[in-house]
Design brief:
Layout (H helix, E strand, L loop, with lengths): L10 E4 L8 E4 L5 E7 L18 H7 L20 E9 L2 E2 L1 H11 L3 E4 L2 H11 L8 E7 L2 E5 L12 H17 L1
Parallel strand pairs: 3-4, 3-6, 6-8
Antiparallel strand pairs: 1-2, 4-5, 7-8
């Protein structure tokens, strides 16, 4: 289990024109890349990934043991030093930019693709013709040949599920990464 920062240079790349502030946070050889969705129903992000009021992403990352320290949204560019990256399936109107997501994941080649919600995993699965996720955990299909995992969403809209339960399910991601 790698919980301490690594000496990696994070490379942030613009995701699409019109959103110069929020960029993919990726580097080669990451343990996992967290994939959310952006653009179809608004964005869960402001100036940093998962910085919305009530969003538990950074708290869950720490409570699950994926990082030893509690990071803040303003630390998003440092996440690759802990072995993780961030990106989104970006929607333009009713069209997802699958090609951009798949290119980003092929370049980074993480050990695992971790969808940050069933919504994100379902959106991807529908677009590529895969079986929709019914539970949290490992998926029966891959993303660009990489094992995939679905997590309970960190947003405040998912507060019906307690933070300790979500953290336990996020902890399962670490076990999954170690098993692949």
């Amino acid at each position: 289990m790698k919980l301490t920062p690594r000496n990696r240079s994070a490379r942030t790349t613009p995701r699409f024109r019109g959103d110069p502030e929020l960029r993919d946070v990726l580097a080669p050889g990451l343990r996992a890349v967290f994939v959310g969705t952006r653009g179809r129903n608004g964005s869960p992000h402001g100036r940093h990934y998962y910085d919305g009021a009530g969003n538990q992403f950074w708290n869950l990352l720490h409570l699950s043991g994926l990082t030893r320290v509690r990071l803040d949204p303003s630390d998003d560019a440092t996440l690759p030093t802990y072995g993780y990256g961030l990106t989104d399936l970006v929607w333009r109107g009713d069209t997802p930019d699958l090609a951009a997501l798949q290119r980003a994941l092929r370049r980074a080649r993480p050990r695992v693709v971790a969808f940050v919600s069933k919504t994100a995993a379902t959106s991807y699965a529908r677009e590529v013709g895969e079986r929709l996720p019914r539970t949290y955990g490992p998926l029966s299909w891959t993303v660009v040949g990489l094992p995939a995992f679905v997590l309970p969403g960190p947003s405040g809209a998912n507060n019906a599920m307690s933070v300790p339960l979500r953290a336990a399910l996020w902890r399962d991601l670490d076990d999954f990464i170690e098993s692949v």
